[in-house]
Design the sequence.
C-alpha cells in the first residue's frame, strides 16, 4: 500500500477493472510455467539446431536441464547513437553468464529506428508501428523455447515499449532490461532550441543549424534531453525492470560494463532453476504500472507514454486508462526540471541525485507502492541508491543523498516545482486528447482562438514562411492519426509555433497526431481521438471556428452550435500519398487495424 489514499484508490479501481483480463493473463503465464521452458521439452533434433554454433562445453551444459540459458534480445545498430554501444554487450553478457555458471545466446535482433533522423520525413510514418513490430520480432527470437530468462537491450522511443510488450507476452520468463546510458553533455538544449527558431525565421542558415545539431548529438548514447528515450529508462527503473541505479550511467565506462555484467548474472539468478524465481508476468502488476505513471508525472516525462504505458499494461492484462493517468497527474508533484521542462539535461539530473533521490522522495511522500517485486528482489526501497564502481570492478551501491545536489534540477518532495505532474486529459465535443503543460507557462494554459485547418505539417510550414500566420489561432493538423498515416510525431511544428508565440500571439495546436516526447512550451492537444480518418469530430472543424483549449478545466471544445456542428459532414482527404515509399506499403495492414490512441494505438489488441 501507499501512504497516499488517493493513489491507493486509483490503484484499486485499476485492479477491479482489470480482474477478468488479468486473471486470464496470469492463468496463461502459470500454465506456461507448469509446462516448463527448459531444453528437456525439445526433441534431440530441435536441441541440436539450438546449440549447433555453441562451444563444446556450452553444448554439454545445454544438453542437460540444470544450467540456465539466457536469451539476449538486442536492438543494436551503429546508426542509432543510443544503441551503438550495444555492439559489445553480448560478449560481456556471455562472459558474465559463464562466470555465473550459465550460458547466454543472442536470441534475436529487433529493428530500432531513430525518430531524430525521421522527424518530418516519410519514414516517421513507420515509427509508432515499429513498437508493435519490435514486440513481434522479439516473439520470433524467443519462440525457440531455449531460454530460462531473457535480457533486453534497448533504449529509445518505441524500442523499449515494444520490448516490454514482448517481455510481458513471455511473462513466464524472468526479464531484465539493460540500458546503454546517455551520451555526455554537448551543446545546451536551450541553445539548440534557440538556433532552431532562428533557422525557422530565416535568420541563420543550414550550415549554422547543422553545426548546432551536431554539437548537441555528438557521440554514443541516448540524446540528453528528457524525451521518450530517457523517459523509457526512468520507467524501467521505477518499475523494477532495471538494476538499481542503472538508467543514466554513460556508455563505455567501467561502471556501465559492471552494471551490464551484474544484470546478466541477476537474470540467471532469478530463473526457475534457482530459489528466487521471478517471472516478469507475475512481477509486473497494477502497482508497478501505477509506479511507472507516478514516475512519469514526477519527472515531466514524454506524452508518448500516454499510449505506450496503456499498451504495455494491456500486455499484462491490466486496463490502464487516460483518466487514470490524468487523475494521478493531479496528485503527483513535479520534482524534476530537465529540458524541455527546464534547462538541464539527464546528466545533470543524474548528478543531482538521479533516480535514487527521486524514488526516495516519492516514497517519503507516500506516492509509490514500495511493496512491489523487482528484478533486484527487495522492494522499491532498494532502488533509493547510487551505483559506484568497487575496487574489484563490481557494482557497489551507496544510499541516495539526503539533499539534492542541485535543487534547480531535482527538488525535494516538500518543495516541488509545481503541485501537479502536468499531463492532463482534455475532453469535450472534439473527443479526448492529451496535453503536457509542465513546460507551458500558466498564462498559456487556456487558449481561445479561431481555427486554421491543415491536412499535413508541410502546409503549416508553408503558411508560416509565407507570413500568413502572424495572428492568434489554433492550428488544427488532422489526418495524422494511426489509421491515417501511422501517427507521426509533428515535432517540426514546434519552432514556427514557438516563434509565433514569442511574438505575442496566442497559439495552440490541436491534432490527432503526436508531438515529440520533448513536447515543450506551446500548448498542444495531441492524440485527439476519434481521429479524423475514422470520422472523428476533428474532421468537422472549419477554418474560423472558435476553439477553446482549457488545460485548467480539462476541456477541448469547438465553440459552434451543437446542432450545426453535428450536422456537418466529416471532411475526407486523399491519403494515397501516405501508402507508398520508404516501406510504407508494407504497413498497410497496420494502418487498417490500428486501435485508437487512448487504447494504445496498437495493432496487437
Sequence:
Amino acid at each position: 500500500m501507499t501512504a497516499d489514499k488517493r493513489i491507493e484508490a486509483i490503484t484499486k479501481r485499476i485492479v477491479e477493472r482489470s480482474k477478468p483480463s488479468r486473471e486470464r493473463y496470469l492463468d496463461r503465464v502459470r500454465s506456461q510455467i507448469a509446462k516448463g521452458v527448459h531444453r528437456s521439452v525439445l526433441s534431440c533434433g530441435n536441441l541440436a539446431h539450438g546449440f549447433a554454433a555453441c562451444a563444446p562445453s556450452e553444448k554439454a551444459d545445454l544438453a542437460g536441464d540444470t544450467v540456465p540459458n539466457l536469451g539476449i534480445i538486442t536492438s543494436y545498430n551503429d546508426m542509432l547513437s543510443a544503441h551503438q554501444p550495444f555492439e559489445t554487450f553480448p560478449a560481456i553478457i556471455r562472459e558474465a553468464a559463464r562466470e555465473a555458471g550459465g550460458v547466454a545466446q543472442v536470441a534475436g535482433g529487433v529493428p530500432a529506428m531513430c525518430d531524430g533522423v525521421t522527424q518530418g520525413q516519410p519514414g516517421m510514418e513507420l515509427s509508432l508501428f515499429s513498437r508493435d513490430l519490435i514486440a513481434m520480432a522479439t516473439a520470433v527470437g524467443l519462440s525457440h523455447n531455449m531460454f530460462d530468462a531473457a535480457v533486453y537491450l534497448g533504449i529509445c522511443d518505441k524500442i523499449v515499449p515494444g520490448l516490454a510488450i514482448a517481455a510481458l507476452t513471455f511473462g513466464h520468463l524472468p526479464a531484465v532490461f539493460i540500458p546503454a546510458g546517455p551520451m555526455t553533455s554537448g551543446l545546451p538544449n536551450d541553445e539548440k532550441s534557440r538556433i532552431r527558431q532562428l533557422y525557422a525565421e530565416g535568420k541563420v542558415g543550414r550550415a549554422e543549424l547543422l553545426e548546432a545539431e551536431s554539437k548537441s548529438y555528438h557521440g554514443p548514447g541516448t540524446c540528453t534531453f528528457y524525451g521518450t528515450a530517457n523517459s523509457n529508462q526512468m520507467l524501467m527503473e521505477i518499475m523494477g525492470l532495471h538494476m538499481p541505479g542503472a538508467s543514466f550511467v554513460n556508455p563505455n565506462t567501467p561502471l556501465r560494463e559492471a552494471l551490464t555484467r551484474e544484470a546478466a548474472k541477476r537474470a540467471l539468478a532469478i530463473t526457475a532453476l534457482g530459489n528466487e524465481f521471478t517471472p516478469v508476468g507475475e512481477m509486473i502488476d497494477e502497482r508497478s504500472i501505477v509506479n511507472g505513471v507516478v514516475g512519469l508525472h514526477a519527472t515531466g516525462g514524454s506524452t508518448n507514454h500516454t499510449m505506450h504505458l496503456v499498451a504495455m499494461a494491456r500486455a499484462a492484462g491490466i486496463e490502464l486508462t487516460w483518466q487514470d493517468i490524468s487523475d494521478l497527474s493531479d496528485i503527483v508533484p513535479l520534482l524534476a526540471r530537465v529540458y524541455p521542462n527546464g534547462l538541464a539535461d539527464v546528466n545533470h539530473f543524474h548528478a543531482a541525485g538521479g533516480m535514487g533521490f527521486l524514488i526516495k522522495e516519492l516514497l517519503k511522500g507516500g506516492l509509490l507502492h514500495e511493496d512491489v517485486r523487482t528484478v533486484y528482489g527487495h522492494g522499491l526501497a532498494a532502488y533509493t541508491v547510487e551505483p559506484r564502481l568497487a575496487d574489484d570492478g563490481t557494482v557497489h551501491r551507496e544510499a541516495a543523498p539526503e539533499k539534492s545536489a542541485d535543487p534547480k534540477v531535482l527538488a525535494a518532495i516538500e518543495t516541488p516545482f509545481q503541485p501537479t505532474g502536468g499531463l492532463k486529459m482534455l475532453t469535450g465535443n472534439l473527443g479526448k486528447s492529451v496535453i503536457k503543460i509542465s513546460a507551458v507557462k500558466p498564462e498559456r494554459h487556456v487558449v481561445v482562438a479561431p481555427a486554421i485547418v491543415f491536412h499535413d505539417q508541410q502546409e503549416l510550414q508553408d503558411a508560416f514562411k509565407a507570413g500568413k500566420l502572424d495572428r492568434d489561432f489554433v492550428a488544427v493538423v488532422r489526418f495524422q492519426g494511426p489509421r491515417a498515416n501511422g501517427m507521426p510525431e509533428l515535432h517540426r511544428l514546434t519552432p514556427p509555433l514557438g516563434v509565433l508565440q514569442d511574438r505575442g500571439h496566442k497559439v495552440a495546436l490541436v491534432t490527432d497526431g503526436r508531438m515529440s516526447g520533448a513536447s515543450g512550451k506551446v500548448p498542444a492537444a495531441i492524440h485527439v481521438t476519434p481521429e479524423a480518418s475514422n470520422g472523428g469530430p476533428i474532421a468537422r472543424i472549419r477554418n474560423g471556428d472558435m476553439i477553446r483549449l482549457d488545460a485548467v478545466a480539462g476541456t477541448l471544445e469547438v465553440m459552434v452550435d451543437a446542432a450545426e456542428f453535428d450536422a456537418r459532414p466529416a471532411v475526407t482527404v486523399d491519403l494515397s500519398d501516405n501508402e507508398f515509399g520508404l516501406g510504407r506499403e508494407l504497413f498497410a495492414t497496420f494502418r487498417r487495424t490500428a486501435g485508437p490512441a487512448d487504447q494504445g494505438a496498437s495493432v496487437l489488441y
In short: The chain has two domains: 5-35+68-184+219-399, 423-599. The first helix runs from residue 5 to 35.
